[in-house]
Amino acid sequence: MPHINAAAALQISMLLLALPAQYFLSQWYGTDSAERVQITERLIIASWSISARSYLSLDAWADRLKLWLSKTRTCLYVELLILHFRNWYYGENKTKSGDNDAKPHSYFAESTHVHSPKPEYIKFRVGQVIIHRRFGYSGVIVGWDVKANTPEERLQPRYPPVKQDLKDTPHYRILINQANGFGKSTAYVPEEEITVIIGLEVYHPDMETYFTGYDGSKYIMQPWLKKLYPHD
């Protein structure tokens, strides 16, 4: 049934108050009992007539129902439009994001392609804790590339002519242990610059994203990461 709005409720209230109000007004104007009865009868008849037209008429309720349905259809249409736009927007962006994720050439060992088979010359594994030989910071391996996979403009200053051969050696992405106070959050380093250490835990805000825990020798990969590095 259609909902009675504020205007209709006010009208009903006024009609209900009209009878006692008329009675008290008639007292102030000094009408006699016969006149008061006559006025009251007219008020009752008028009130009944208005109520019958407004709330006891099937036509009136049919008009209200049509108005309510038209508003409901409008709201439903707007909701459907919003839902359609939302599905289109997020579906479009999800597709674009999926296309980007599927690219196997993401830089700094962040590619989402499955690293299988694993070449025998890749010495270290995801989840192992390492220490940098030159800078002394510790960290944990979260990914590797068979050779340096960085933008060319970053490779040139990093590897002078005497170290050009390092570009073709395995590189590892490291979450740097914040306990070192090193100042950097991550690193991307060649294999010859790191060595594995056992029994050292790493503190970094992204640890739970990559690992489920530490078994005393290495960190246990999250299922999604294990799928990318099934042989580590």
From TrEMBL:
Under the heading Pfam families, the entry gives:
YccV-like
Gene3D superfamilies assigned to the protein according to its UniProt record, in alphabetical order:
Hemimethylated DNA-binding domain (2.30.30.390)
**What one GO molecular function would you report for this record?**
DNA binding
Renumbered to this chain, the signal peptide range is 1-26
Q: Which UniProt keywords apply?
A: Signal
Keyword Lipoprotein: yes or no? no
Q: Where is the Hemimethylated DNA-binding domain?
A: 121-222
Instruction: Tell me the NCBIfam families matching this sequence.
Output: yccV
PANTHER family referenced in this protein's UniProt entry, alphabetically: HEMIMETHYLATED DNA-BINDING DOMAIN-CONTAINING PROTEIN (PTHR48439:SF1)
| Protein name from the UniProt record | FBX21 protein
The species this protein was found in: Pomatostomus ruficeps (Chestnut-crowned babbler)
